[in-house]
């Protein structure tokens, strides 16, 4: 076999090819699959936020004010329910 031919064949090989010759393979870590998965998730979140903003029926300040009002209403309702349950159970009210 010609040495130049052998050298040309060996330069076309990469690390995985050489490891495969001796029955080994490269070690894969958790990060090999986690980073692409998290990247895809992040891109999906950004696309979802962008599409949501495009189809929003209200301007940002109105939407935030509406959400703030709904959260305050739900928080008051939850506090009233918790107080009613605590009264029925007999738990003393905090001062």
Task: Explain the overall architecture.
By secondary structure, the chain is mainly α. It has a domain at 58-95. The chain contains 4 helices and no strands. It has helices at 3-11, 15-21, 31-54, 60-89. The longest helix is centred in the C-terminal third of the chain and has 30 residues, at 60-89. The radius of gyration is 31 Å and the shape is elongated. The protein starts with a helix and ends in a 6-residue tail after the last helix. 0% of the residues are buried. The mean pLDDT is 83.
Quick structural overview:
The protein is 74% helix and 0% strand.
Strand content: under 5%
Total number of strands: 0
Average of pLDDT: 83
Low-pLDDT runs: none
H-E string: HHHH
Rg, nearest Å: 31 Å
Instruction: Write down the overall geometry.
Output: elongated
Helix content: over 70%
Secondary structure tally, helices? 4
Secondary-structure-based class equals mainly alpha
Q: Main β-sheet: number of strands, strand sense, barrel status? A: none
Note the quaternary state here. Answer: single chain
Q: For the record, give the distance between the C-alpha atoms at the N and C termini, rounded to a whole number.
A: 93 Å
